[in-house]
Amino acid sequence: MCFLFPLVKYFPLYDIILLEGEIMIQSLVKAANVLDILKNENRELTIAEISEFLNIPPSTAHRILSTLIDVGYVSKDDRTHLYALGPSLIPLGIKASSKLDPQAVGKDVLENLSDITLEDSFFIIKSGDKGLMLSKAEGKHTLKIVENFGIEIDLHKGAIRKTILAFQPNDYINYYLKKELSDYLDSPVDKEILRKDLIDIRNKKISVSDSEYIEDAIGIGAPVFNYKDDLVGAIGVVIPRERVTEKSKKEYIEAVKKCGIEFSKNLGYSQAQ
What pTM does this model have? Predict the structure, then answer.
């Protein structure tokens, strides 16, 4: 006599029987949502709060939390009955973050930005008191602003580099503004105007420049952050002024800002939106 049993898969690390099908998928999604809530709220939560956030019965929340506790992804304070992310997530996070190389992660984002704008796009990082181009994607326009690899340019020159300067600690900005600063014509820079620009860039998370280090060139830059909420650099485009209209300028700004958010999100930035 032959007996048919439902197909099961065994996950050897935790000896959990994973049943294939829609119910299993739904349970995984709910478990992932619980972890997201605990991460985003950045505090310990009660079962009632978790069930309310996810719109699920407390009994379902309890079952999911119990499983996550068993595997170390969630911890429970037995005294307060509050739940938080567990220690087993730490090695997973370290392993995942080790793969988040900005240059590699940003390649697709830069190419997407160039596809949208038809312009060369750049990812620039801080190098001392200057900005250094780390990555570049080619746009389809043949008439373009040339920026060479390995050339370091002052952080106050151009929208992309100025974005990097804007998100530095205040102590560093104060130090930088005490330096002798000049524009692309070697004329002195008005430091009060520059300071106001940096505040505006920080508030809006977008920077626009006109002929700040290349004559007749419009620059647009946006910040890029990582999973530690640290600035890792800035993304942007530099466009010949003759190709920029008021309408296209808004479109460039929107594209750069959107790609900056996408880049940051891909690096695990928690506030990307």
Answer: 0.65
The model's pLDDT over 123-171, given as tens digits with 9 standing for 90+, comes to 999 988 999 888 899 888 866 666 666 678 899 999 999 999 999 999 9
Whole-angstrom distance between the N-terminal and C-terminal Cα of the chain?
Answer: 60
Asked if residue 200 has pLDDT above 70, the reply is yes
Cα distance between residue 89 and residue 74, in whole Å: 8
Domain boundaries, the chain: 8-96, 100-266
DSSP letter string, 23-76: HHHHHHHHHHHHHHHHHHH-S-B-HHHHHHHHT--HHHHHHHHHHHHHTTSEEE
Question: CA-CA distance, 157 to 119, in Å (whole number)?
Answer: 19
Is the domain 100-266 a CATH 3.30.450.40 member?
Answer: yes
Strand partners, 83: 45, 76
- Would you identify the CATH topology of the domain 8-96? Arc Repressor Mutant, subunit A (1.10.10)
Bridge partners of 243, per DSSP, are: none
Q: Are the CB atoms for 219 and 158 separated by under 8 Å?
A: yes
Question: How far is the C-alpha of 45 from the C-alpha of 34, rounded, in Å?
Answer: 10
